[in-house]
Write a structure and sequence with these properties.
single chain, 171 residues, mainly alpha, Helicase, Ruva Protein, domain 3, 6 helices, elongated
Length: 171
């Protein structure tokens, strides 16, 4: 009986939580200043400073001033974020976008760093395995315990290695 009485309480609590989350995520979504801030941090300044449009700190930078005014005009015209980014990309080229697009050939810019990292990691693993002498299941040739069975030039080479390294090297 007590469990059934608590059920509406938990349902109402869950509804209140969902409503609170929806309010938190929707706050500022329609605010034009937050959209302006978000968009000018998705664009690069074209003055050559290699900074985000919203972060360009050159005193009297005419490019950032002009681009920010274009962005404000586009927001005032009611364009969507995608339309604004596409218009800037069409006007200034794809380099105006802070992050490359995720479609077509531009997808390579997202995949290449991970592919290069994976190839370098694989190469390093193979190199270390080769240095350790366990590459491809091959075992190193064992040096015979009796050096008298070796050719004289091989005995001389092993003796020189022993003298130079100061170790017996297992023989």
């Amino acid at each position: 009986m007590a469990a059934t009485a608590r059920l509406p309480f938990w349902i109402k609590s869950a509804e209140a939580l969902v409503l609170a989350l929806a309010m938190c995520f929707s706050m500022g979504a329609s605010n034009s200043s937050s959209r302006f801030y978000s968009l000018n941090h998705k664009l690069m300044c074209t003055c050559g400073c290699a900074e985000l449009l919203g972060e360009c700190n050159h005193v009297g930078c005419t490019e950032s001033t002009r681009e920010n005014s274009e962005l404000s005009a586009a927001l005032a015209a009611g364009e969507t974020d995608q339309q604004i980014l596409a218009a800037f990309s069409a006007k200034y080229g794809a380099t105006v976008l802070a992050a490359p697009p995720t479609h077509g050939f531009d997808l390579v810019a997202w995949i290449a760093p991970f592919a290069v990292f994976a190839a370098a990691l694989l190469g390093t693993i193979l190199l270390v395995r080769r240095w350790a002498g366990i590459a491809c299941g091959k075992e190193q040739a064992a040096i015979p315990a009796d050096l008298s069975t070796l050719a004289p030039d091989e005995r001389e080479r092993l003796e020189r290695i022993r003298r130079e390294t100061g170790a017996n090297g297992g023989f």
